[in-house]
Design a protein that fits this description.
The chain has about 180 residues and is of the alpha+beta class. It contains 4 helices and 3 strands. Strands 1-3-2 form a 3-stranded antiparallel sheet, with helices on one face. About 10% of the residues are buried.
């Protein structure tokens, strides 16, 4: 019994070849590779012209034998490999966000002016408190950014090495070396 899977990738030869190599590492065989265009709609210009919009992608179909002696081991390697790649993408996408401690714009400025006009002392206290809060958030952001710079690249590299190892294990299991 065979199983089949179809994936869509950006129509770049490097990406298509990389995807094929990745799936072949886990026992998949290419059944079909076709470049597709999908109609995304039409826009109308000021001069009355129309432009059709399409997205282009490659649709690659893979198949593999479920009765192979290596099937169970390789599918476990493949699942772990995909989890690691998802984690790597999550880490790459993460960036600490600098929070704004108080509303910016007219409300914060109006409140400050009102306090200055109404009471000088509360206005001074407001200004000092606002500066302290800003300094606190800036310090927290700088610490989070330093943690990100120091920790995440090492984590990503470690996960990437494990993903490569999983592909190697799968290839060896399929070829009968392990």
């Amino acid at each position: 019994m065979r199983e089949t899977k179809t994936v869509q990738v950006y129509p770049s030869d490097a990406i298509v070849n990389s995807t094929i190599n990745e799936y072949e590492s886990f026992g998949w065989e290419v059944v079909g590779n076709q470049r597709c265009q999908e109609y995304n709609g039409q826009t109308h210009g000021i001069d009355g012209s129309t432009t059709n919009h399409y997205s282009t992608f490659n649709k690659i179909t893979f198949s593999r034998e479920k009765d192979s002696p290596w099937y169970n081991d390789v599918t476990q390697f493949e699942k772990e490999y995909h989890v690691l790649n998802d984690t790597i993408e999550t880490y790459k996408a993460y960036r600490p966000v600098q929070r704004k401690p108080s509303p910016e714009g007219s409300m914060g400025v109006l409140l400050g002016i009102f306090l200055y006009m109404l009471w000088i002392v509360p206005g001074i206290i407001y200004t000092i408190a606002r500066a302290c809060v800003r300094a606190k958030y800036k310090k927290q952001y700088q610490k989070a950014l330093a943690d990100y710079v120091n920790v995440y690249p090492a984590k990503i590299e470690e996960l990437h090495k494990r993903a490569i190892e999983l592909r190697r294990l799968a290839e060896n299991r399929i070829s009968g070396k392990a």
